[in-house]
Design a protein that fits this description.
By secondary structure, this protein is an alpha+beta fold. It is built from eight helices and ten strands. It has a four-stranded antiparallel β-sheet with strand order 1-6-7-5, with no helix packed on it. It has a four-stranded antiparallel β-sheet with strand order 2-3-4-8, covered by helices on one side. Strands 9-10 form a two-stranded antiparallel sheet. Helix 1 runs parallel beside helix 6 and helix 5 packs across helix 6. The C terminus is likely disordered.
Length: about 290
């Protein structure tokens, strides 16, 4: 799933390739992708892209007062094409979900792999009209999001720190992969209860979050859209690396599986050398 760093890289890429250009047509291919119907998608025809923004994991393409909001979800992706196929896309069983064609012949496709369709596109007058955007918490890389603001968000939380970091209504843009990376950098168990964090641990977690995300954004800067997935994977130290040695201490990276996802961690760096059992059986580590 694209998270904040990849979404920011896509925003930069689209800002460079779209702003000032005219949209010829936006063509939905999969019915499930379009979540709004007023204004109709045809309202984009003939508009000029004025800006490309980001709200957490949402991309925001602004065109003459309209906003095309894109959430790539778990298996969605954006593929830029310098020359789009001349014929209209045909609905079918392929991954293509939506095509945005520019008057110059270039444009991009939104694709989604797999059978679970969660990729979402909204066309609205105001991004806040999209419920997923309206409920977002602060951006963790915003200039005014300091350590005290972070601590204030965590005050009163009674869940595990991994879940808190992934909650988009608490903090926008962090998903499964970067929460694993942040907790590894902070040398903290994913199961640690937020209410048990000391002041020093809150500071450590805040600094690990900012540093991890900033470094990921810097690695992705200038990377073409088609190479962002590989760039993300190459920069991860623990997430998706079960069985490999920890790059910090050399211990074997372990995994905890859930019904539809998994987390990875280093026992030596994060849990005092103790492997975590299945989530349902594990004790919360301090």
């Amino acid at each position: 799933m694209p998270e904040l760093p990849e979404a920011e890289a896509l925003r930069e890429f689209l800002d460079e390739h779209l702003v000032g250009k005219e949209i010829a047509r936006a063509l939905p291919v999969a019915i499930s992708v379009l979540k709004t119907y007023d204004p109709p998608l045809s309202a984009l025809d003939g508009t000029t892209v004025t800006a490309v923004g980001r709200h957490g994991k949402f991309l925001d393409i602004a065109a003459d007062g309209l906003h095309l909001l894109i959430h790539l979800a778990r298996a969605g992706w954006l593929q830029w094409r310098d020359v789009l196929p001349s014929g209209p896309p045909r609905p079918g069983k392929g991954p293509l979900a939506l095509r945005v064609a520019l008057t110059g012949g270039d444009g991009f496709d939104l694709t989604e792999a797999g059978t679970t369709k969660r990729l979402a596109v909204h066309l609205v007058h105001d991004p806040a009209d999209v419920p997923g955007v309206a409920r977002l918490g602060p951006d963790p890389l915003a200039d005014d999001f300091d350590r005290d603001a972070f601590a204030a968000l965590l005050a009163g939380e009674r869940r595990q720190v991994k879940g808190a970091l992934r909650d988009q209504s608490l903090i926008a843009g962090i998903g499964n992969a970067y929460s694993d990376e942040i907790l590894h950098a902070a040398r903290m168990s994913p199961f640690k209860p937020v209410q048990n964090l000391t002041e020093d641990e809150t500071t450590t977690l805040y600094e690990a979050m900012r540093t991890t995300l900033r470094e990921a954004v810097e690695r992705s800067h200038g990377v073409a859209a088609g190479r962002l997935k590989a760039e993300k994977k190459s920069g991860l130290r623990v997430h998706g690396r079960t069985g490999e040695p920890c790059p910090v201490c050399g211990d074997t990276i372990r995994e905890v599986s859930f019904s539809d996802s998994s987390l990875q961690y280093c026992p030596t760096c994060q849990t005092g050398g103790k492997p975590l059992a299945d989530r349902r059986l594990s004790r919360l580590l301090k």
